[in-house]
């Protein structure tokens, strides 16, 4: 573990004057998530200060850049799509799979998916039934269909490669602001702020001392993310802040004693006001919901090609709810209803 109590470090000694060199951003050579493995690999070339919002301390920002770069080098989880071990398509697949799904569940599915279909052309050529089956229990299976639609557009329009402009990426099926920004940053090394719930929480707490209230990102949150983005090492910054929010600066039970930013975190200094308030949505029960019924039907179809009406009725006692869920699965393109009321995965 790196020692952050360096007497020369303004992060751990707030009263220390910050020199021009100390304010320089930490820079790292980054491509496809590759990061240096030790502090000796850090490039300390300086770049101009950004225009910080009036309520943000620029010295704190630069100290945070340094601390997060060091923390990331020693603490980043060893996920298979990090550190240059995949291409832009692999990063896109990982981001789509990770939406509303714990990372621990994503890893085996991502490995199997990339082994079967390492390119957009491979996914485009696969049957829809194969795609839905491979998605398994990741949840929200419409993401799988959108990913295949995306692969078909990439194959037809871009020769199986991902475009490098934000505008072209967000025009792809299933790709929104976050996913496009993540691909540009993590795969192509573009300087762009990546904004997700974890990043918003960390930035809001550290630099403004308030809790993030969930929902869509506000203009103020976007301005803050853009302002604190370093001129160099920006992909490492995006990934490290996201990682910190996922494993340390969590919504309800942050591990402040383990946080590399704790000594200068305004939220912690103010007594963590409103901790955990204003989450995006309350946790929803799963048992008995349409989501559960839809999942049961799809899981049964993954192990057999067709389910008869009688077999469907054995899956769920409430046949009115069952019929509603079958209709919604058909509407979403996740199943086909045959003339005899049996169902199958799409061809």
Features:
Endonuclease III, domain 1; 347 residues; three-stranded antiparallel sheet
Please give a quick description of this structure.
With 347 residues, this protein is mostly helical.
Largest sheet: 3 strands, antiparallel
User: What is the helix tally?
Assistant: 15
Number of strands: 3
The CATH class of the domain at 88-179 is identified as Mainly Alpha
Main structural class:
mainly alpha
Strand order of the largest sheet: 1-3-2
Any idea what the CATH architecture of the domain at 88-179 is? Orthogonal Bundle
Shape: globular
**CATH superfamily of the domain at 88-179, please?**
Hypothetical protein, domain 2
Helix content: 40-55%
Radius of gyration: 23 Å
In percent, how much strand structure appears in the residues? under 5%
Helices and strands, in order, run as HHHHHHHHHHHHHEHHEE
What is the CATH topology descriptor of the domain at 88-179? Endonuclease III, domain 1
Low-confidence stretches are 1-50
* Averaged pLDDT: 84
Measured distance between first and last alpha carbons: 52 Å
């Amino acid at each position: 573990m790196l020692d952050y109590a360096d007497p020369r470090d303004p992060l751990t000694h707030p009263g220390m004057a910050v020199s021009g060199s100390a304010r320089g951003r930490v820079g790292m050579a980054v491509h496809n998530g590759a990061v240096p493995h030790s502090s000796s690999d850090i490039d300390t070339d300086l770049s101009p200060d950004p225009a910080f919002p009036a309520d943000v301390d620029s010295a704190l920002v630069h100290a945070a850049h340094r601390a997060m770069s060091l923390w990331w080098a020693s603490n980043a989880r060893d996920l298979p799509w990090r550190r240059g071990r995949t291409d832009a398509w692999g990063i896109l697949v990982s981001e789509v799979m990770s939406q509303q799904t714990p990372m621990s569940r994503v890893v085996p599915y991502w490995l199997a998916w990339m082994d079967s279909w390492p390119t957009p052309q491979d996914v485009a050529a696969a049957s829809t039934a194969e795609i839905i089956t491979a998605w398994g229990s990741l949840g929200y299976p419409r993401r799988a269909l959108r990913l295949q639609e995306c692969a078909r557009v990439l194959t037809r329009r871009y020769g199986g490669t991902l475009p490098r402009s934000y505008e072209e990426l967000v025009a792809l099926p299933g790709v929104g602001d976050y996913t496009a920004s993540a691909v540009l940053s993590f795969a192509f090394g573009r300087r762009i702020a990546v904004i997700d719930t974890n990043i918003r929480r960390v930035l809001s707490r550290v630099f403004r001392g308030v809790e993030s209230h969930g929902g869509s990102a506000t203009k103020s949150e976007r301005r803050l993310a853009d302002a604190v983005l370093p001129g160099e090492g920006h992909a490492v910054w995006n990934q490290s802040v996201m990682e910190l929010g996922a494993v340390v600066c969590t919504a309800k039970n942050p591990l402040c004693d383990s946080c590399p930013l704790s000594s200068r975190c305004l939220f912690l200094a103010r007594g963590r006001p409103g901790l955990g308030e204003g989450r995006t949505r309350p946790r929803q029960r799963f048992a008995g919901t349409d989501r559960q019924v839809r999942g049961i039907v799809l899981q049964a179809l993954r192990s057999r090609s067709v389910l008869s009406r009688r077999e469907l009725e054995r899956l769920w006692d409430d046949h009115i709810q069952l019929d509603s869920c079958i209709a919604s699965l058909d509407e979403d393109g996740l199943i086909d209803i045959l003339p005899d009321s049996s169902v199958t995965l799409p061809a």
